[in-house]
Specification:
Layout lengths: L1 H16 L4 H14 L1 H4 L3 H4 L6 H19 L1 H13 L3 H16 L4 H18 L5 H14 L8 H16 L14 H22 L10 H4 L6 E5 L11 H5 L7 E7 L2 E3 L13 E5 L2 H11 L2 E2 L6 H4 L8 E5 L16 H5 L2 E7 L2 E3 L13 E5 L2 H9 L4 E2 L13 H16 L5 H15 L6 H4 L3 H19 L2 H10 L7 H16 L4 H19 L3 H13 L9 H7 L6 H26 L5
Antiparallel strand pairs: 1-4, 1-5, 2-3, 2-4, 6-9, 6-10, 7-8, 7-9
Helix pairs in contact: 1-2, 2-21, 5-10, 5-18, 5-19, 5-21, 6-7, 6-8, 7-8, 7-9, 7-11, 8-9, 8-26, 9-11, 9-26, 10-24, 10-25, 11-27, 18-19, 21-24, 22-24, 23-24, 23-25, 23-27, 24-25, 25-27
Length: 602
Amino acid sequence: MLAVFALILLALVLFATEWLPIDVTAILIMVLLMVLEPWTRISPQEGISGFASPATITVLAMLILSTGINRTGIVQLLGRKMAAFAGTDRRKQLAATIGVTGPVSGFINNTPVVAILVPVITDLAHEGETSPSKLLMPLSFASMLGGTLTLIGTSTNILASDIAAQLGAETPGLDLFAFGMFEFTKLGVVVFAVGALYLMTVGVWLIPERIPADDDLVEEYALQEYLADVVVPADSSLIGQTVEEALGDDDLDIDALQLVRDGERFDEPLARKEIQDDDTLRLRTNRGTLERIVDAEGLTFAGGPRTEDDLHPDEEDPVLVEVVIPSGSFLVGETLASSTFRQRYDANVLAFRSRGDVVRDRFEDISVRVGDTLLVQAPPDSLQRLVQNEDFIVAHEFDETTYRSEKIPFAVAIIAGVVALPALNVLPIVVSALAGVVAMVFTGVLEPTELYSSVEWNVIFLLAGVIPLGIALQQTGAAGVLGNLVASTSTLLPPIGVLWVFYLATGLLTSVISNNASVVLMIPVAASTAQSIGANAFAFVLAVTFAASTAFMTPVGYQTNLFVYGPGGYRFSDFLRVGAPLQFLLSIVTVLGIAFFWGLSP
C-alpha cells in the first residue's frame, strides 16, 4: 500500500506540474507499477492491460468516429445555422452557442466539438459585435455539460463505466455494472439545464470582456511597438545581401514580414530575397533592437502598422490569425525554432500566448504546450494549410475549406447505429463503436489513411497508463484503507453528505490533474466507502463520474478550457471566478439528483 500511495503522490505531482506530458507520466507510472511488482502486485500482464481495456478501445473508436463526423462538415453547418439565427443579439448568440454545443457533445466526443466550434464562435462574436470572451468560455462549459448526457459524451464516462464493471465483477456485493448508453441521461439533462441557466444569467455577468468586441488582433496583442517599416538607403551595407544574411542572426530576434519594392509587395518566403536600394522592410522586433539596427545600417524609420487592416489593406482574406495548439500536435514539447514552423508554413509568429501571458519577443525557444496560442501572419494559401492540418485549431473559419457534405446521411446513420445498438442491448458499446469505424471506411466518410491520424494517441496512452493504477489500488487494499478513512466521516455526516464530499474532492482533484486519472483514483475509493457505510455504490461511482466530467475551475482542468483560453484572452482567475460558483451549484444539484433518481440505499 505504501508503494502504491508513493506512486499516486508522484503521479499527482507530475500531473499538476506538467514536468512531463501527462501521457508520458501515465506510462512512467505503469512501468513503475510493473517494476515494483513484489510491492504493487501488478504483473506485466496487468500492467499492460490498459491497452486491451474496453474503455481504451472504445475511446479510440469514438475519436475516429468524431473525425468522420468532422470530415462531413455537419458541425460547421450547424454552427453556421446557429450564427444566422443569433445575428447580433448577444442573448441569442449565447443561447445558440449553448444549445448547439451541449446536445452535439452528448453524441460526439466533446473535445473535437469545441475544436471545431472555436473558429465559428469567434467569427460569430466579431461579426455580431460581441466580445469573444463572452461566448468562448460558455462554449467550453456547455461541451462539458453536454458530455454528461450519454455514455459516449466524454472519455471519462466510458472509463468510469469500465472501472465500475471491473469492480462489480471482482466484488459482486457492490452491485456495480457497466453503464448503459442512456444510464444517467435523466440526471445529465437536469445538470445541463441548470448549467445552461447559470451561464445565461449569472455566468455571462461574471465573465469579463477581456477582448473588446471591436478590437483587432494587432491592438489586442499590443503589437504596435513591435512592428516597424524601415527604408533601405543607397549607402546601406544591407544592399546586396539576402534577407536571411542581413537579419537572420538569432541574437537579433528580428523577423522580416514583408518587402515592398517599387510598389510591389513580397511576403514569405523572404529569406533568399536580395535587398536593394530604396526597399521598404516590415520588421517584427522590439524598439531597442530596432534602434540599434537603424543606427548601425543607416536605415530610415517609416512608421508601421497600427491596426490589423494596415498589415494587408487590400486583402479579402485575413492574413493574421490566432492558432491554438491542441493535444497531439507535433508542436507540443517543441519550440518554434526546433519545429521549423516558419519554414514549413511560410508563416511568421508575431506573438505567443501561454497560460494567459503574452510574449511578443524572443519566443523562438519557448517550449510549446497544449492550449498555447500563436498569433500567425501568413499568406492565405498557407493559412488554408494550417486549417486543414489537425495539429492546429485556427480561430477563424475559411469558406474555401472543403467537406464531404454528401456523406452526411451516412455519418449520421452510422452514429445513430453506434448509439442504438448498445442502448437496445444488441451489442456492447466497444463492438458497436468499432463496427461504426469500419462502416465509415466502407461508406467513404473516412479514408483508410485517416484512421491513425484521427486518434489522439496521448489520450489513449494516458488511459492505458493510469488503468493499472486503479487495479493496484484494489489489489493492495489501498482503496479499502482510503474508503474506510473517508467512511469515518459518516459519524458526522449522513450518507448524502459523504456523497457530496466525494463530489467536491473529485472536482478539486480534476482541477489539477487529468479527469481520467481522477476517475481511476477516486472510483475504487468511492465504491469501498459506499460498502463501508452500507450505501449504494452506484450512486458514489456516478458522483465521481459527474464531478470529473465537469471541471470548470481552472483552464488546465479540462482540455476544452485550454482551447478557449487564448482566443478568449482569459486570465487563470477568470475560470475560478465563473467556474467555482457553477461547480458548487452543480455539486448540490448532482448529489440531490442522484439521491432522487437512484437513492442512497443499496
